[in-house]
Every structure is written in C-alpha cells, then in structure tokens.
Fold:
Amino acid sequence: MKHQVERAERTAEWIQEEHDGLLLLFSPALREFNWMTHVFTTRKGGESEAPLDSFNLGRHWESPESKADAMLNRQRLSGILGIDHKKLAVPGQQHTNNVSYLDKSSNTENGALTGIDGLATRIGGQGLLLHFADCVPVMLADPATRTISVVHAGWRGTASGIVANAVKAMVTQGSNPKDIVVAIGPAIAPCCFETAPDVAGQLCKSASDGDELVLYKNDKAYPDLKSINARQAKSAGVERVDISNLCTACNPQIFYSHRQSGGRTGRQGALACVI
Ligand SMILES: [Zn+2]
Structure:
C-alpha cells in the first residue's frame, strides 16, 4: 500500500454556460485572453442519436448519418464561437506524442494530419479541434506570441510526454515557456481510471515525482492523468496550469466516456482558435 494520491495542482471550478441549447465549459484562465476563443464541449444539446447522443463531434461515427450529424455539430459549434467551420484543422489522433505546428503553407485537409495528436498555430481563424472520450484535453496559450495548441493526451500520449512536445513546438516558434498558460479539461480521474501496474509505472516515469500521482488500492493502480500532464507542463517551464475538476466517467450524462460506455460512444471536443 503506497501513500494516498496527493493532488499536485489545484483544480478549479470551470465556467459552465448554455449556448444555443448546448452545455459548454470554459477555462477561467483562458477566458482572460481576448485574442483567442476556446471551448470544451459536453454531450448535451445536440442531435446525434444513441449511442452517440447527443452532441457528438466525431470522429467515431457509426453510420453515414452519424457522420453527417457530427459535421453539422461541428458547424453549429463553430457558429457559436464565430469561427469558420470550413477552416477547422482536425487531426487523425492515434495516441502518439506528435505535435504539428501549422503555418500558412500547412495542408490541413482531411487525411493530411493523420497520426497527429497535437496541433499548434498562431494563424487567425485557424480553429484546432480534437476529440475525447476520457483522454485528457490540454490547451496551451501564449499571450506574448499569441500562439495556441490543443493536445490529446491519453495514457500513451501522456506516458510519452505529448504536453512537453507541445511546449517545445511553441518554444521553437518563439514562445517562452513561462508565458504559456495551460488548461486541462474534463477527463477520466483516479476515481474511475484503474490501470495495469505497468501502465502506472510508465506514467510515473513520465513526470517528476510521478509516483505521487498514482493512487494504489488493493494492488490496483489509479493514475491521476490530469495532474501528471500538469506536472509535465510545469517541468517544461510553464507556471500557470488551470485544471477542471470533472471526471468524464463519473458523469456519463454530461460526457462521453470510453471506459464507462464499454467503448461504444461519441466524442466531445476541445476547440481553440486565435481570432
Ligand atoms: Zn470518476
């Protein structure tokens, strides 16, 4: 029996608002920036049918109709944020640690971003949309260079340091890590994320003092993925991290949860855009 998990980072009440019938979440830290817009979506308020009900943003569609619904949902969300849905960059996430910086010459068309789990850009109007159902959505924003990044950090991406790669991608483009603000959205928490010991071991190794961020109970391991990502961001030089306290698997009426649903479910989104 190891010690109880200690939350290394403060978790915050996030802003919940209804827009056009959708329940949407916002990081208080990122809401301070008027040069960008962002949102973390929930499953509530859309048109998609079960088991994807109801605000599924893809990319896990069950039929041509559900794909069409997801495309309409993306369009509706873009409209709420006042951005062009045709310009969304939506990577083909594969649990890698690959982060791609998009400039004006980048090809963001369907299929061009396969095997990418993080995007960064400073192009105005270039929305970045990634999908989640328990994995950790991480947004990074640097007000000094007006650069943003959105990252998909499941356990594999977390263990291989995708958040540090996002910081690195931004630093390569001129950011100073201490200017970067990180927001970590709703994701599966230790209450529901039981893993094999070897997975927990890899996660412990990925963050400094990472063993503090895994709860052990009856020989089972329960890693705190959100805090491990926060720790990695801090190790990369980030000073301010804002974490949602919501667990996706504890709240199946609000969020899609791969673990809670047994795998057949939709995807919520994390969308950011420089405006
Ligand atoms: Zn939970």
About this structure: Residues 189, 191-192, 247, 249-250 surround zinc ion (CB under 6 Å). Residues 1-8 have pLDDT under 50 and may be disordered. Residues 11 and 243 are 5 Å apart (CA to CA). The chain has one domain: 11-274.
